[in-house]
Amino acid sequence: MNTSDALDSYPFLAGGGEMGTLTRSFDWSKTEIGSPDEWPQSLRTTVSILLASRFPMFLFWGPSLIQFYNDAYRPSLGNDGKHPTALGQRAEECWPETWPIIKPLIDQVLAGGEATWSEDQLIPIFRNGRLENVYWTFSYSPVRDESGQVGGVLVVCTETTQAITVLRKAEESEEQLRFAIDAAELGTFDLNPITNRFVGNDRLKEWFGLPPHAEIPLQTALDVIIDRDRQRVTDAIWEAMQYASGGLYDAVYTITNPQTGIERIVRAKGKAYFNPDQTPYRLNGTLQDITHEVTIQQQLIATNEELVDSIRQFTFVTDFMPQMVWATQPDGTHDFYNRQWYAFTGLTPDQSMGEGWSTVLHPDDIARTQAIWQHSLETGAPYEIEYRMRRHDGAYRWLLARALPMRDAGPDGQPGPILRWFGTCTDIHDQKSFATDLEQQVAQRTRALQIANLDLQRSNENLERFAYVSSHDLQEPLRKIQSFGDLLKTNYASQLGDGVDFLERMQSAADRMSMLIKDLLAFSRIRNQPGAFRSVSISHIINGVLNDLELSIQESGATIDAGPLPTIEGDGPQLRQLFQNLITNAIKFRQPGVAPHIRISCETVSSADLPEELHPISTASRFYLITVTDNGIGFDEKYADRIFQMFQRLHGRSQYGGTGIGLAIVQKVVDNHGGAIQAVSQPGQGARFCIYLPA
């Protein structure tokens, strides 16, 4: 049958792009599932959903696990591999290289009907002419046929190989950067001007008198600056965060460790980054301890007339310094260089004196250097500049030049006229290259993370749309099953005999599936971050939940004691789901013959008192600890983390009903509110759920 005829005969195969065309033209009569007119409605519906979806899907059907897949899954098969022979092929024949990995997962779904979930799972596949290591995030879900049995396994997946590769490369780059920073003995900082959050590495914290694990309050970062430098540094930061400045930050100042009193002279270099509206969102950079270098300069400045008269001693001292040292007359005429100058430039003393220094400057830096030097000569202000100078081998290197004037004593202790200028040149080429590389690598890593986040966001949106559409499409046949089952039971119960039991089982299975679909839809909706928070009374939420559960409370004889509860900033509907799931579980998982007793209390704790294993998203200093305690059957604490995962059940369905999604919703609501949750229990001794929400 050609594609056009197949579309007319089987409208459920419409659309689907390339895979829709291949599916319609495939001769299914040669497989064990037969031609499409023999397919059960469950298979037709699932294949129709699969072809229409833009999220990668794969279906195994029947005892031989005959395969279907859609256009979104097609790229994962690569070229020169399994496509298109995988369509209609038996799974074991198609996946010999991965069969030991995926077969147990398929068997688990076929045997118990419970879905699986795997995140960033390594499953090598043969594609593009070779066996490749491929990472996947996927779920194997049961597809039940008309008899209520598992007729197939639906695979909803996405390939995460690129994201894993990017993340690992980013981690390697970060490790290399961290090593380089440690080797250079630099402090690093990162300021968010929107939130005023200031972050630094361990070396910076040590300079600030803080332990490695401590946060760095922005005020602390300013308080360690000595008084005479603080305003100048604040002005330099403000100037860097103006878009017109280009975002460059460069300042030399002194900091004091408040614990030890040790002073350090540091040079801060950084760069600000701006949003499209020209507002700054980040300022980061490095601090270098230049105390030793500046001390030497200060010693040179403090040298008095005796040093001028004892030029031989001065030359002897400076020749042992690692920096190039130079001196000028008051008008700026150079008349002294130490040995390092001649070794670096290759110039002779005659070539160096006077304006000889300008002959080895990079042509692009001459005008700027002369202008700044002239300004210092005219005003007596300290001279500081970075420029490129030609080394004796012809290579240009970046240098940091600094100079201070030595003045005669004036009347009344005031500074007198300038006697000489003393300066140094320090090779900073490697440090400057490192800073540039650091900025580039940070920018590349940030871009890679942004791309990965966008891919993850699109993946989550596709999953949410799929869950919503699937739940509505699947509810309709379920409602028909339930309605026709009720009609059969009402009108033909006497004629069905033992068949009534089978009918009731069918109805029970349909009810469970309906409940599962509703819970899945609820969970997919709760995945979204909430909208604008508003004031929500937890007491009001609890009262509403108790009204909804009034019948269950009466039937179980449950008593609920709720103490004073706070009003918080949050999402009311989500918080209602949180407490309704916890209270429902406390009633459901009660001990035989014992009426449930549920206690709800609240206290305020500081962030420092939170259990070490909890890591809430919020950085609030205080949290409300809301505790929900029951006297039910409890559970082994080794399952304390597992119970918050999707479809995780510690008891059989015959003992206790439910879908295994309720506590996953609880966890998601707590995460959306920036909090954390902890479960504490022992078998037979009830359970206690500790909910931490930002105060």
Automatic annotation (TrEMBL):
Residues 310-380 form the PAS domain. One of its GO terms (molecular function) is phosphorelay sensor kinase activity. It catalyses: ATP + protein L-histidine = ADP + protein N-phospho-L-histidine. Keywords: Kinase, Phosphoprotein, Transferase. Pfam families: HATPase_c (PF02518), HisKA (PF00512), PAS_3 (PF08447), PAS_4 (PF08448). SUPFAM superfamilies: ATPase domain of HSP90 chaperone/DNA topoisomerase II/histidine kinase, Homodimeric domain of signal transducing histidine kinase, PYP-like sensor domain (PAS domain). Residues 469-695 form the Histidine kinase domain. Residues 383-440 form the PAC domain. The keyword Repeat does not apply. PROSITE patterns: HIS_KIN (PS50109), PAC (PS50113), PAS (PS50112). Signal peptide: none annotated. Its EC number is 2.7.13.3. NCBIfam families: sensory_box (TIGR00229). This is histidine kinase.
